[in-house]
Amino acid sequence: MTVKTLEPATEPTTGVNSRKKQRSLLIEAAIVIFLAVLLLVVIPPLLTAAGQGVRINQLGRFLSLAIVALGIDLIWGYTGLLSLGHGIFFALGGYAFAMYLQLQLPAGQIPDFFSLYGVETLPWFWQPFYSFPFTLIAVVALPTIVAAALGYLVFRNRIRGVYFSILTQAALIVFFNFFNGQQKLINGTNGLKTDTATLFGQQVGNNPQIMGAFYALSVLFLVLGYAFCRWLTSGRIGRMLVAIRDDETRVRFSGYDPTWFKVFVFAISAGLAGIAGALYTVQSGIITPKSMDIAFSIEMVIWVAVGGRATLVGAILGALVVNFARTLLSEQYPAFWLFFQGALFLLVVTVLPSGFLGWFRTEGANFVRSLLGRRKQVMTYPSLEEDPEVQYERENLRD
Amino acid sequence: MTQLLESLFGGLSIGSVLLLSALGLAIVFGLMGVINMAHGELMMLGAYTTFVVQNAFKKTPLEGFYIFFALIAAFIVTALLGLLLERGVIRYLYGRPLETLLATWGVSLILQQFVRSVSWQFIAGLLIFCLLFFGAMGVLSRLANFERIRGWVIGLMLPISAAISLTISHILGQTYKLAVTNPWFGTQGVDVTAPKWLRGGLPIVKEYQLPYTRLFIIVLTVVCVLGIYWFLNKTAWGLRIRAVTQNRNMSACLGIPTATVDALTFAIGSGLAGIAGCAVSLLGSVSPNTGQSYIVDTFMVVVVGGVGKLVGSIVAASAIGVISYVVSSNALGPLVGFSESLKGLFEFFATASMAKVMVFALIVIFLQFRPAGLFPQKGRTVDA
């Protein structure tokens, strides 16, 4: 049996440790920037050259869905709160931006659909969406505020676990019904179209320039979102979130109030979903109450589960892979997608509980070795003995 | 007065449907801590079973009473399916409610698509696949070193049996054409017609009459609740179920077969979903999506009622039923005639979908005062 010994750290001091950390952070940043450049500069021309120009738009949409997945990973993977209502926040962001686009009209006119229902004046809550800066703020702030309010009401009473999931799902139904039923306010089932609207004097739909810009924005926000989540989870707050996930009662007994942390992280992930909603809406050309379907919100969870919980990268990969699998499969065999999706849910829960990335991190190396006919590696305790952090804890945190 | 009676009965008839569909869920969720998102789909299967039984009884002397056979058939079909589900998936997931939620959601998607695309060809393919795959697993599991080659066997047998079954079902489809490829139910909804003696209604007040189908559902709900109550409190298996709910380890030590109890509980919960589906099919057309529209409402009943107590579910279902009927029919509108703005508010919520908005808001407010529901379980184990 081969025993893997970790490189003995020469000087288990915090200085070396932090320098090491810094270096690995720099490497990670370099990889992320490299991937972003790849997505921005190399992939679109490649796809166009291969005659798959349509796929660029799909990729852009899926990248914005990956931003939602990041938010879900933050609250589910790290904090252990399974939200089945992220469609609300996604749709709120999308509607906010779509309302701004709908209002790009000559002065005095109101969007066409209002005339269908005999509405003459613009409803009051549409008014502020004339302003571009307000819209940009609203895309993030609206979902954040709704999530914070809902979260506060729920978490204050220590409603957790499955009850939280069921309540978020019920909230989703409520928002769906509200948006679906109010034709006179927001065009009900038909939703708001964005592809006929204009942005900065150019038509949005079928405009490669604007679509390219939004593709780039999706990549940009995905990178920013990733960096933000990475920063958040690697610091003290991140440890707090994990602590809440693993033993909330103990956190409470240690003198922290988990409520505010939970409200905070729920609001953040809602904000991410809002941004994603706005980006997605423009790239798909329409937002309807259908984005608040029960199924869609649960699907978001499965992206994270497939990729791997509490990994962030896994969430992004999961969103991209599952969505591409969906388009490819439902183009070929529309009936089989639901079977496939159902099987995916079952498999991920029973066979791969930590997702592909989690499996790869724990078992992957051993699996490759066993394929090559080698023996398994065993982590033994010399590695523990030489771990600088363990040493440090032993010396300084004795009692 | 007439208004009051009308809203009472209207609410009761909504509440009884809610209660009937929530009953199975309350048992499974309350006693086992399993979130069964496929509950709605089990209801849908119960409704489809009713449809099949109705067609089977057409032009026979028992035509008028098919509904009773349908109730039994629906119970058996969904209970067997529930048993399969518990043995196949859920028993690996006890103690992880969020995982059961996701897994049963996957099952619900599969069931929906199954009902849409089931045909003779599909069934033949499925049977051949199961026969080949599980047969091979059964034969090979006698080998001494099975555990070691297990991964390889699964990896090999899965594509082989899938390929064989797909080919055979494809050939079947080519030779017999539409006779085997035609889906049984299709994506469209199917209609169950109530037997003759259930048509019409019982006049209660002037214009309002309670349809006999609604009355039938109310009676059915009462019978089911009493039956479950009797089963849980007066029979040996009921006693075992309650014992396992209270303390699983201690029950196991005392010789109660906990695995059997789990399977039985889940089967009964699923069977009740089938009965609920049978009742629901009398109210309107049944489509593969029927289940989805019930699932959230029924969960709300269980949450408001408090987990583990049937009384809670009964009270919660009737309360939610009455409130949603009152709000959606705008029964309170005339009462607040003195204030224009209040009247406007009530009118704003006076549709079925907006009533849901109102009811949910009320539920959230209610949970502020009673976070654990109407009749919470007491004791130290609850918080764990």
Q: Your description of this structure?
A:
The complex is a heterodimer of chains A (399) and B (384). Chain A is mainly alpha-helical and 399 residues long. Chain A contains 17 helices and 6 strands. Chain A has a two-stranded parallel ribbon with strand order 1-6. Chain A has a two-stranded antiparallel sheet with strand order 2-5. The longest helix of chain A is centred in the first third of the chain and has 36 residues, at 14-49. Chain A is globular. With 384 residues, chain B is mainly alpha-helical. Chain B folds into 2 domains: 2-118 and 183-383, ABC transporter involved in vitamin B12 uptake, BtuC, CATH 1.10.3470; 119-182, no CATH class. Chain B contains 15 helices and 2 strands. Chain B has helices spanning 2-32, 39-56, 66-88, 97-117, 120-140, 146-176, 178-181, 212-234, 236-246, 248-253, 258-281, 290-305, 310-328, 340-348, 352-369, and strands at 201-203, 209-211. A two-stranded antiparallel sheet of chain B has the order 1-2. In chain B, helix 1 packs antiparallel against helix 13 and helix 2 (39-56) runs antiparallel to helix 3. Chain B starts with a helix and ends in a 15-residue tail after the last helix.
